[in-house]
Amino acid sequence: MARRNPLIPSLLLASVAVLQGADDPTARAALPLYQVIPAAPASALTPTDGGPDPAKFRTWTASHGDPGARRYSALRQINRENVHRLQPAWIYRSGDGARNVQANPIVVDGVLYGPTAGRAIVALDAATGSERWRYQVEAPAQLGLEDAPARRGLVYWPGRDGIPPRLVFASGRWLYALDPATGEPLASFGEGGRVPLPTGGTAVGTIFADTYIVPGLWGDVFSFDLVTGRQLWRFHTIPRDGEFGADTWRGPVRDGAHPWGGMALDEHRGIAYIAVGAARPDFIGVDRLGDNLFSNCLVALDARTGSRLWHFQHVRHDIWDLDNPAPPNLVTVEREGRRVDAVACLTKEGGTLLLDRVTGEPLFPFRLRRAPASTLPGEQTAPYQPFPELPEPLSSPEVRLEDITDRSPEAHAFVLRQVERSTYGWFEPPRLGVPMLYRSSRGGPEWTGAAVDVPTGRLYVSTNHLLGQATVHLSDEQDRDPALPPSSGETVFQQLCAACHGDKRQGLGMVPSLVGLRHRRNDASVTELLRLGGNGMPAFPLLEPAERAALLDFLMRRNQPPPAPTARRTTRYFAVGYKFVTDHEGYPGSKPPWGQLQCLDLNTGRILWRKPLGVYPELLAQGLPPTGTQNFGGPTVTAGGLVFVAGTRDEMIRAFDADTGEELWSAQLPFGGYAPPTVYEAGGRQFVVIAATGGGKMNTKEGDSYAAFALPVDAIGNQ
């Protein structure tokens, strides 16, 4: 049940409730509590076609292992019995800078291909880590998310009929094709080895016959001819006028629905599955009313034509940043004694869509619950949102009072004071000027996604369990265009106030936000507070009158430079988001485990085990059990009964027993490994390799390495 905090100022609630355009809470409450999309009968599900050649799972020619994004290796030289003997085999240092690398490298015929910290693509001897060639990718004048070469992966195409093989990857607004033997761009592909990718690329695409299908970072899905580079088709993830779904966007804003999570491909059936993200702007939907297709959807496309075959939307009219964050996974599960082909898709609210690959029908009943109404003027929330039973949720979008950290009385009290100023609950909508606690940004699966144990139909997922905070404000509260100089009042604020209230007035820890202050206080009360202090705030009696007046103007948003022209994507509101609730010592404000590795059996829909992932050594020394840490790594599973995963703040890589979740091995990486591991064979040895460059959202030290592990030769000889 949603919690509405009694400490929210009653005047603010009363003022917004009477304004036109908000949801009608009485009408919402009269709706049935639940709706259910029934599961398809087992007899109607698509029987397995046998899947890909098992030999494909002994190679790693595409990031995430294969076109089905399963990250499964059939290699078993390293197994439960000998993994404790795993040791470093080689470490490669690119020497061209220090920067977070998130790609899952590929290995073809004993050669490893992947990006470096310095924006190059390299080929390494997969047995020794020695560099064979390097191709330096051109850097744009201003770097964006899409401008890291092969940011989240690359693929190998073997060629055909005398047409040479190629490495394919995106960088910036371009799609590149290199000669795998030399690293030189292939002149026959577009112009000089590259073709325009209109919306940029980040997630790796997949190869279908002689075409490359790739999701664009900033929207849409594209298909290119692998021989010439010619664009063959484009699917709009936000429908254009006249296209199916266009009527689900009502208002001046059509933004988001970016398929940055990635895709998978059923090669035999020619179906591409696209994980599409949330609508934008996050947390505000007043200028994009409706369900907003194809945001928050798993979309199935005909790989030959790009036409939509089916779609399944889990969250409608998203105002909580609940993207589909990771590539879908092709799976085969058992139903009433029959093996059937399905596709699984992780969602940020912790659910797992499990759908028939051909029809899009759910394999388990998909339950929805009546959602809370909004009080934000102009907002019209969807009446129902997901409330799944099976597959069993990996996490929950609901924030509850009992979720607050109990690490120590001091930590609990510190976080409780923040919670008491906020709204929280299950799909509780944002309120004007009041912090909203939510879980999506670090509350469940991340972009690294899942690994599939192909024979058993088990899904292995690393998850986070942190509390996020976002607040919606009126648009006239936005900060100035950063290209313009600060006002004199902002200069005073940065000198005296920013250390406690944050450089964007957003508040830090228990110190409240000052955004929207003019709607809560008048000039006289703020002047008095500056003079005398109060509630933990020191007095500033020595402020010169001119400085006090300038600071007051800044806080009350008078005489300020205008915001950036692109900042106002809605006409009424903007959001301050992606703040994370921590305790007084900087640890997560929710109860541990803060990071987990989980095993979900897709045959039954039940979670088989959950284990904390990562440790804070200093907390272990205090006698606390393992808490897990925030993580961005993602697992890989092998036929040797092992799950390899890194991604934690402690910069370790670990191996777990795939059946029990018992940790069997760990090793320190040179830098944090914030990408999934790759498993391959070279020179008769099985290796596990990971990009270990640190940095990224974990903010650990940055580096430039790939680290590979293998069994000692004498252990291999005893197999």
Which key features would you list for this structure?
719 residues, Methanol Dehydrogenase, Chain A, Cytochrome Bc1 Complex, Chain D, domain 2, 2 domains, 5-stranded mixed sheet, 4-stranded antiparallel sheet, globular
Structural class: mainly beta
Note the main sheet: 5 strands, mixed
What is the CATH superfamily label of the largest domain? Quinoprotein alcohol dehydrogenase-like superfamily
Number of extended strands: 40
User: Strands of the biggest beta sheet: in what spatial order?
Assistant: 2-34-35-36-37
What is the annotated CATH architecture of the largest domain? 8 Propeller
CATH domain fold name of the largest domain: Methanol Dehydrogenase, Chain A
Distance between the termini: 56 Å
Query: Uncertain regions: pLDDT < 50 for 5+ in a row?
Result: 1-20
CATH class of the largest domain: Mainly Beta
Number of helices: 9
Can you give the mean pLDDT? 92
Description:
Residues 1-20 have low confidence and may be disordered. 9% of the residues lie in helices and 29% in strands. The longest helix is centred in the middle third of the chain and has 11 residues, at 409-419. The chain has 2 domains: 57-397 and 439-466 and 590-717, Quinoprotein alcohol dehydrogenase-like superfamily (Methanol Dehydrogenase, Chain A, 8 Propeller); 483-567, Cytochrome Bc1 Complex, Chain D, domain 2, CATH 1.10.760. The strands form 11 sheets. It has a 5-stranded mixed β-sheet with strand order 2-34-35-36-37, with no helix packed on it. The chain is mainly beta. This is Pyrroloquinoline quinone-dependent dehydrogenase. GO terms for molecular function: electron transfer activity; heme binding; metal ion binding; quinoprotein glucose dehydrogenase activity. Residues 484-559 form the Cytochrome c domain. Belongs to the bacterial PQQ dehydrogenase family.
